[in-house]
Structure to design on (200 residues):
């Protein structure tokens, strides 16, 4: 099989996927990787071809302030909201267009995609490709027993802590990350796709 791996150009998203890619390659599959050029040497060492970002912005830990000088002034929830929008939501259509174009040269059978790229719906629906969602960071699914992300909470031990965490989760989803969610929905809508849970 031809298997396309796709990930953000961020170590914590790329590195956890490498073991799976190498194992599939050892089993005789044709593996290539769509990510930023920052991983050119690592992929060469793994003998996996790099299909580099073309339209997508290569967000890395070491270039964020160069790309977004205004980010240096942000702290706490404002920084989280900014990162959600700029780093994760803004590249969705760029990722998808890159993958749609590279498919002409590497006609993959299945894609293994970093969950933070948010392109699953587009690749599966518009390209008709089977896709595996690779969650490289802790699962962000909603669960009343799991504290909201970004606040550093431990699991709630009593009703007061549960109430505080519920309020923080509401604030995160509906205020802090709202611009990122709107950006994501706009990009999906441009392709005639509704975001999960949207009434479109």
């Amino acid at each position: 099989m031809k298997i396309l791996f796709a990930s953000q150009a961020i170590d914590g998203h790329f590195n956890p996927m490498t073991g799976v890619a190498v194992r599939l390659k050892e089993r005789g599959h044709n593996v290539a990787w769509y990510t930023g050029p920052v991983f050119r040497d690592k992929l060469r060492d793994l003998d996996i071809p790099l299909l580099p970002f073309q339209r997508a912005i290569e967000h890395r830990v070491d270039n964020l302030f160069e790309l977004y000088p205004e980010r240096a002034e942000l702290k706490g929830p404002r920084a989280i909201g900014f990162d959600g929008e700029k780093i994760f939501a803004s590249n969705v259509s760029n990722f998808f267009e890159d993958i749609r174009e590279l498919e002409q040269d590497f006609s993959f059978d299945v894609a293994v995609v970093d969950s933070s790229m948010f392109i699953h719906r587009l690749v599966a629906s518009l390209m008709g490709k089977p896709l595996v969602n690779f969650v490289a960071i802790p699962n962000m699914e909603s669960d009343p027993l799991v504290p909201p992300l970004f606040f550093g909470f431990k699991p709630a031990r009593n009703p007061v802590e549960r109430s505080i965490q519920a309020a923080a989760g509401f604030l995160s989803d509906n205020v802090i990350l709202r611009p990122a969610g709107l950006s994501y929905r706009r990009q999906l809508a441009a392709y005639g796709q509704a975001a999960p849970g949207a009434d479109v």
Q: What stands out?
A: DSSP finds eight helices and five strands in the chain. The two ends are 36 Å apart (CA to CA). The mean pLDDT is 90.
